[in-house]
Design goal:
about 230 residues, mainly alpha
Length: about 230
């Protein structure tokens, strides 16, 4: 199976777009940053759509839905310094994105009770332990956000676990890319939580945006490796 079409040029473009967004945010050119940031997920969706056979399958459509929810989350989180509710809207948008990714990963994996998570249960113990530990660490600072953050953390961990459960059911390259993306997504979201509720992280926008964009790029590339037909296939 050949690599996705435009893999190298799109990857370079996406890296430049990510870098531009980071630079505009770090230099407080927010007007331009607010125009550029939604283009991140739009461009990933366009690349995915371009590579997929038409009409899109229901699972391929879900990938676009996940990226749409992610874009909404990006927009809401851009304006969180103003109305506090926008952080909650951003949290909800990314929650829906993760739920959609879970549905996508389930479609390409063995049932949980027959998959790698059943055989190597320590993955679940490790990741749920990480999520619970982060929530426990932040709990003195969460106040009314305690329940939303707990729910979000649980869904985020489940998203990563369902990515891991694809092992043996999809191509090794697809498994590796998606799993790496899911785990990096956990790191990115953890930094958002620490930065928002505990204390500011130095160069937070750099680390959060870089890991977030890397995670989404890896996930989309990995799903292309799973869903895309071989070149020349009908």
């Amino acid at each position: 199976m050949t690599s996705p079409k435009l893999l190298v040029p799109f990857s370079v473009f996406f890296a430049l777009l990510t870098t531009a967004c980071i630079v505009f945010e770090l230099t407080h050119i927010y007007g331009v940053a607010y125009m550029v940031k939604p283009l991140l997920m739009i461009s990933l969706a366009g690349w995915y759509w371009y590579n997929m056979p038409k009409p899109l399958s229901s699972i391929s459509g879900l990938v676009l839905v996940a990226l749409f929810f992610s874009m909404c989350g990006d927009v809401f989180l851009m304006i969180t310094p103003r109305p506090h509710n926008f952080f909650l809207y951003g949290l909800l948008s990314f929650l829906l994105a993760h739920v959609t990714y879970i549905a996508i990963y389930r479609s390409g994996a063995a049932p949980v009770f027959r998959g790698i998570l059943w055989q190597q249960w320590w993955w679940a113990l490790l990741l749920f332990g990480f999520g619970a530990g982060l929530v426990r660490f932040l709990s003195p600072y969460l106040q009314e956000m305690m329940l939303p953050v707990m729910v979000y953390a649980m869904v985020l961990v489940c998203m990563a676990l369902f990515a891991i459960n694809r092992h043996g059911s999809v191509r090794g390259k697809s498994f590796g890319l998606v799993t790496a993306g899911a785990l990096i997504f956990m790191v990115s979201d953890s930094m958002i939580a620490i930065n928002a509720f505990y204390q500011p992280i130095p160069l937070a926008r750099l680390w959060i945006l870089a890991t977030y964009c890397l995670a989404q790029w890896l996930i989309v590339w990995g799903l292309l490796e799973q869903h895309r037909l071989p070149q020349g296939a009908v």
